[in-house]
């Protein structure tokens, strides 16, 4: 209604507008908390990937530099020659001649069966592993917009409750509008009683820095514009936008 609209800048920051595509300040707090909860599984995923890469590298080095091949070769020839034509010679040739033998042995073996056979993960496998985390982060971002549907669903099933909620919000904004100036005066006065910070002391020592710094409205925090007004009190120097002034 015209008694409220247009809303002031300090009031806009406390209300969520469902039709806005951009995320608003009350929604950013919940989204940041949800994203902070995604940090532990992300760190665990990175730790697992690093350990996997380190183990794969170590096993690959062992496989490359621990390979050993053995070659064994042996041969022998045993031959007994008995000469003569006597009965004893013929007897010895028939008995001892059976012992004549020869053998050639060649054996080659290696420890390849005992070495590890590591297999590194491919890019596709890394992408599939990382995909749930990406979906989790996207859901945290989309959760902001799905929360806006709660009011629409509740208004569809409980129209009377929705009407009472709208009236409550309207009356609440009216009460805040009545006490807006008083609350802002208290807040600015409380801020003025606080000890000056390093930035304020630097501005006092070097007034030329004020031209370089981008100041904002003391009430709503809106960036500086050509229509801003400055408090005429020499000890104050606070800047206000045109609407708040």
From TrEMBL:
Gene Ontology cellular component terms for the protein in this record: membrane
> InterPro entries annotated for this entry?
CSR-E3_Ligase_Protein (IPR051856), DC_STAMP-like (IPR012858), DCST1_C (IPR058842)
Q: Locate the transmembrane regions by residue number.
A: 126-145
Q: Which Pfam families match?
A: DC_STAMP (PF07782), zf-RING_DCST1_C (PF26037)
Q: Does the keyword Transmembrane helix apply?
A: yes
> Where does it reside?
Membrane
Domain Dendritic cell-specific transmembrane protein-like: from-to ranges = 1-170
- Membrane topology value: Multi-pass membrane protein
Which stretches make up the E3 ubiquitin-protein ligase DCST1-like C-terminal domain?
215-245
Instruction: List UniProt keywords, sorted A-Z.
Output: Ligase, Membrane, Transmembrane, Transmembrane helix
Question: GO MF annotations for this entry?
Answer: ligase activity
Under PANTHER family, the record lists: DENDRITIC CELL-SPECIFIC TRANSMEMBRANE PROTEIN (PTHR21041), E3 UBIQUITIN-PROTEIN LIGASE DCST1 (PTHR21041:SF17)
What protein name applies here? DCST1 ligase
Lineage, opening ranks: Eukaryota, Metazoa, Chordata, Craniata, Vertebrata
In the UniProt record, what gene is named as encoding this protein?
Answer: Dcst1
